[in-house]
Amino acid sequence: MQDQVKTVGNINPLFWVPTAYFTMALGFMMLTNVTSTMFKNLGMSNGEAAGYSSMFILAYTIKPLYAPFVEMYRTKKFFVLCAQLTIALGFVGVGLAMSLPNYMVVLMPMLWVLSFVGATQDIASDGVYVTSLDSRSQSLFCGIQSLSWNVGPIVAAGGMVWLSGYLYTEVFHQSKGSFGPEWIAAWRIIFFLVAGVTLLMALWHWKVMPDGERASNTPTSVKATVDILKDSFVTFFQKRDVWKMIAFAFLFRLSIGFLEKIGPFFMLDPLAKGGLGLSNELLGLVYGTYGLAAVLLGSLLGGWFVARGGLKSTLFILCCAVNIPNITFLIMSWYLPQDLVLISAGVIIEKFFFGFGSVGYMIYLMQELAPGKYTTTHYAFGTGLMGLCGMLTGMVSGFLQEWMGYINYFVFVMVATIPSFLACWFAPFHQTDAAAQTESGNPEQTKHAAAIH
């Protein structure tokens, strides 16, 4: 591949593309996903744990609004290194803060700030990728980029959650099935470990990552940046049937938003509370490893399915794939299986079909919502609506589950699929319904094509 790709400073992109996207995903998952498990372990109610962790999604949702300002100053590599160094130091600070008497007063603002730093890392890393590689190189590396990003969630939601449980029981000799402050010692080590990995990545990228070239249309002043943002909003709402497309972008994953935080809580809660009573080790193995691998496989097959049949003729089938398999959680909440094989099968089925169907969502944003004067920005608006849906549903999901109980809540999740079906059925198609092609110049598209929950 060395002879086929554009290299910068005689450094092959294989040295920095995989590590850049792995580091992005590791930070994202630790902040927006793994924190919910940590809060649950520390003794928070489902409502508090889901609500607090969902708040950290906001920074990633609104990052298109401040991305142009990152482009204006210094180099993209500079922002990548600053962000990774700040995240590393921040996670050390999180670990230290957890030893304080009222640690949540300090912990929440720190994690909130780190979420914005993590979103800035995403912006800058994507910028390095787009400007340092030519279109052919971007196409060659899009698969490596997507795979590398998906390793991050497996390490965070799988490996780190598993390790937290191992430390809790085997190193600190605490009893399984309990929630409370006795978990602090285990989670402090996890944050110190992730901080160390992030710091190593920053040092590595300091050596091997290119600076990233400045795009020819980059604004040179704050006023010019604001003007471009205003124009991108105006032209977005001038699109034909834009409100139907907005409804699709927001509602397609509505039921998944309600399931995202509660699924792991259901696995962790004891039988007496209607859960399955799994340990953190088993949660990391089943939900964070088997499940995420199923998402990745489903995404690959979903892309092949759309490429063969075209988006317009397959979109409703993909919507069914995302929503109908959620019933596996309703079935598990009813029968409360204790066989790990059955539990794993339920999670794998739901995750596989989620990955399979979500490809259609991302391709719709690329082919129907994004085209126009500001293709990349409008695509980011679409993914921002997806993030907004996940944040809002996540913030209320825990409180709803506590009110309803697990069985009734998972019935509610199935009812919440109805808006998704309606939005999909009425989704407009104004562009040519070509076979699905991932736009090689936009790393957000390949990264989110295997989106996880």
From TrEMBL:
<dbReference type="GO" id="GO:0016020">
    <property type="term" value="C:membrane"/>
</dbReference>
<feature type="domain" description="Major facilitator superfamily (MFS) profile">
    <location>
        <begin position="13"/>
        <end position="431"/>
    </location>
</feature>
<dbReference type="InterPro" id="IPR011701">
    <property type="entry name" value="MFS"/>
</dbReference>
<feature type="transmembrane region" description="Helical">
    <location>
        <begin position="287"/>
        <end position="307"/>
    </location>
</feature>
<protein>
    <submittedName>
        <fullName>MFS transporter</fullName>
    </submittedName>
</protein>
<feature type="transmembrane region" description="Helical">
    <location>
        <begin position="140"/>
        <end position="163"/>
    </location>
</feature>
<feature type="transmembrane region" description="Helical">
    <location>
        <begin position="78"/>
        <end position="97"/>
    </location>
</feature>
<keyword id="KW-0472">Membrane</keyword>
<feature type="transmembrane region" description="Helical">
    <location>
        <begin position="49"/>
        <end position="66"/>
    </location>
</feature>
<dbReference type="InterPro" id="IPR004752">
    <property type="entry name" value="AmpG_permease/AT-1"/>
</dbReference>
<dbReference type="InterPro" id="IPR020846">
    <property type="entry name" value="MFS_dom"/>
</dbReference>
<feature type="transmembrane region" description="Helical">
    <location>
        <begin position="12"/>
        <end position="29"/>
    </location>
</feature>
<dbReference type="Pfam" id="PF07690">
    <property type="entry name" value="MFS_1"/>
</dbReference>
<feature type="transmembrane region" description="Helical">
    <location>
        <begin position="378"/>
        <end position="400"/>
    </location>
</feature>
<keyword id="KW-0813">Transport</keyword>
<feature type="transmembrane region" description="Helical">
    <location>
        <begin position="103"/>
        <end position="119"/>
    </location>
</feature>
<feature type="transmembrane region" description="Helical">
    <location>
        <begin position="246"/>
        <end position="267"/>
    </location>
</feature>
<feature type="transmembrane region" description="Helical">
    <location>
        <begin position="406"/>
        <end position="427"/>
    </location>
</feature>
<dbReference type="GO" id="GO:0022857">
    <property type="term" value="F:transmembrane transporter activity"/>
</dbReference>
<feature type="transmembrane region" description="Helical">
    <location>
        <begin position="314"/>
        <end position="336"/>
    </location>
</feature>
<keyword id="KW-1133">Transmembrane helix</keyword>
<feature type="transmembrane region" description="Helical">
    <location>
        <begin position="183"/>
        <end position="204"/>
    </location>
</feature>
<feature type="transmembrane region" description="Helical">
    <location>
        <begin position="342"/>
        <end position="366"/>
    </location>
</feature>
<dbReference type="InterPro" id="IPR036259">
    <property type="entry name" value="MFS_trans_sf"/>
</dbReference>
<keyword id="KW-0812">Transmembrane</keyword>
